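the two lines:
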Amino acid sequence: MFKSSPCRLHVSADDHGSPGPAPGGPAATLLDALALDRLRQLDPDGSRGFLSQVLSTYRQSLERHLALLSTLSGEGALKPVGDAAHTLKSSSASVGALDFSRLCAQVESLARAGDPQALAAPLSALRAEGERVLDAVRDMLSR
Amino acid sequence: MRFGICSPGESQVQRMTPSPTDAGPGQDQPRVLLVDDDEVNLLLTSVALRERGFSITEAPSGERALALTADWTPDIVVLDAQMPGLDGFDTCRRLRDLPGFEHVPVLMLTGLDDDASIARAYQAGATDFFVKANQWGLLTERLNFLLRSSRTRIELDRSKTRLARAQDLARMGSFDWMRHERGLRLQPEALRVFGLPPTERVSLRRLLRMVHDDERAAFIRLLREQLRTSSVLACDITIEQYDMLRRVIHAEAEPEFNDHGQCVGYTGIVQDVTDRRAAEDRIRHLANFDTLTGLPNRHQLIWRAETALEQARRLKHEFAILLIDLDRFKVINDTLGHGSGDELLRQVAQRLRGCVRHTDQVLEGALEAAGARSHRSLEAVGRLGGDEFVALLPEVAGELDAERVAQRVLEVMREPIVVGGQECFVTASVGVAIYPRDGDSVVDLLRNADVAMYSVKGAGRNGSAVYTPALAGTGRGKLERETALHKAIERQELVLHYQPQIDVHAGRVVGTEALMRWMCEGKLQPPAEFIPLAEETGLIVPLSEWAIREATRQGRLWCQRVGLDVPISVNLPSLMFTRSDLIDQIHEAAGHHGVPHSMLRVEITEDNLMKDLQSVIPALHRLNEIGVEISIDDFGTGYSSMSRLTTLPIAELKIDRAFIKDLGITPQSPAIVQAIVALGKALGLRVVAEGVEMLRQMDVLQRLGCSIMQGYMFCRPVPPEELERWIGSAVLPNNRPKRAVAVAPSR
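prediction for all of em together
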């Protein structure tokens, strides 16, 4: 599931000699470096492979929820959409996918408001942004 | 799970997370139950808190959290508010319903702008909320704060529980009363003291209604007075509850003051002291009343008499003490047994109560409150001890009043008393002393009533007498005589005279009986003059001990001087046989004078033996074991049980002189003597006839088979030297051709 060496992921984003969101790569724009640094502080020497474990967990969650969201539509989907957005909102913020987290918050709010029409466009944007974040995470994990 | 997808909580997270039963955290690590459906947050928060010293148990859903807490209680719960399925709010509510979870801190994780969730969290029973963010330091501080609060609360709860338990055990509870605010407020323990449910609201007015009618007005007065003076309240009140049980409540409260020094209320405690009061009452009763008759005892009587005397002195009136002593109570006690004796005393007490205006309880405080005639309540009959009662008449108009009561006492005793199914006729001797004429102290009055009572006894009992100084002379005479008898031993005024016992068949002396005499003021007193006094005063014990020593000394002397080594009989009262040191006394006397124990023979009258048979028997056996023979004196007049006689370790029967005296005069006497001789022979006992004064009696006795005799016909009781002379010169009769027989040692 996770092939890269844990030691590669624990290194600070400022350290150019080490993997991380590469400048110009998808992670560099989609995942906040400060947020990722905070996660690295929980496993400073990287011995426990904590960051890769978190990203891996996030990837699974994101895959599962995006797959779910692609199947949902109409009024009956409001509650599951809201719940999925709520879950993705906080976990995305934790791994530094801040824009995506904001989109999740917007979708959650609209879903709770109960208007399927108003939800269509933001939900579509969320799915698209979600796929991009998923790519970035996969990219990080593959290094 | 909600989407039919494998839950992270059941897979990855579960693998990483130890269960509560896994090798556990350190003892001081706070145990956190972390509940979040978002596996990323669950993982992050869990790792972050573990880093900071918490022991984390993860649950990916509310349902899982409830399952974990079925048999385990964490120190704190961190709960995500928004979860699919059972959300944080419902989970919190369910947790609060679990036993032991009422006060476990629950921290609800909410969104940043989610005010509605915050309010809902509190409504659901959450202790606090925390906005979800990766600010682990803040979260740690919040958790530590909640844990500290929780520990403080737990300590407080424990402390309250301990206090409540202690108060419960002490049947105590606290209360406060605030004058202008909430009025009276009783803690549940205090309500319990009043027998009320713990949730009851009770007003002061209602409590006052519970106070017993007799005390309510005084208690209200006391409360008003304490409040007026802002002083400490400490009092006992009797309350009567719905169940009509009376309880004694001790209330103690101190005033509370505001900043201006004004008393604003009271705080204090109430305590159920019913049992303690009952015990105190019981102790007081035992200290003041006779347990057998229920009458005031000596202590209470003396107190009443002192109080009555004080009142009489102050109000200048007379008061009387009647000393009532039952006649021959000892005989009843000895004959019917102590149980019947006690029953008789109870019945007598009941009758005597009716002779005066008897008041059982006299309260010291109440006496003063009752006014000028209060001393009347001191009137009572009490028991001084044994068969001695006292009637106290706190105010009499002269001795006639007292005599009337004395006559009433004698009158009520005339009716027979049935005890142990037997009718008994009991009389009393009553002595009267009047204040101030017959003494100005209770001690003097009691002594003089005693003198008057003894004068009645001396005059034949069953009567009353008022004290006069002339009676005191008689009493003093007795006292002086008692003192003189005390000193008789050390002054060597006691002597033993001896009367020989002769076997007329063998023509020789076979023993002597030692008889005590008292050389008092130059006159030799016979035993009848001083032995009753000695028995009454207990002096009989040292007198008997002296007789044992003196008889053994004399036995040794006779052996040395005239070769006479026949046994010497010493009369002992039954009291001596019950003393544990009798054998030691005999050992010591025999050892000291170097004579065998068999030199001594002890005589006990048949009456005394049968009266105290059970207590005397052990001593008889011990005496027998050391070689001292037992002789039954005055045999034939008592009521010996023939069956017991066969088992007693006795050696000799002495026929009572009354039967000897009539020998040859009444036809019955020989028959009785013959029967005793036959009994003696059958039991292998020696039979001795005493009081033989005439030849005719000796002949009959010989004919009836009794050959050992003692009496004036041979020799009266004489001093030892004279007996020596008599032995040297006596001519003794026998069946052989009459000749002078030199009495020779013959054993």
